[in-house]
Amino acid sequence: MRYLDPKNDLTFRKIFGQHPLLLKSFLNAILPLPVPIKDLEYLPADLVPEVPLLKYSIVDVCCIDDNGRQFIVEMQML
Predict the structure, then answer these.
(1) Strand (E) positions, the chain?
(2) For residue 32, what pLDDT is reported?
(3) Has residue 25 got a pLDDT over 70?
(4) Radius of gyration over alpha carbons of the chain, in Å?
(5) Cα(36)–Cα(26) distance, integer angstroms
(6) What's the predicted TM-score (pTM) here?
(7) HSE, side-chain direction, 13 A CA sphere, residue 16
(8) Sign of the dihedral defined by the CA atoms of residues 7, 8, 10, 15, in that order
């Protein structure tokens, strides 16, 4: 039996993209945040780096904590 790697962007989106409450719980459990995440929004926008040699990245999730602060969560392997 083969398993999908959750560090792969497509697999991560398949696991957590359809279950926002699961993702919010996961992020609150692993991130050392002083205030828990209240809400999150999946962002479809692709970000092309200003320097061509840098990695092309996809912004995954915009989070809002209980204090109203916004921050981006993105899967990074390197």
Answers:
(1) 37-42, 46-47, 57-58, 61-65, 70-73
(2) 92
(3) yes
(4) 14
(5) 11
(6) 0.69
(7) 23
(8) negative
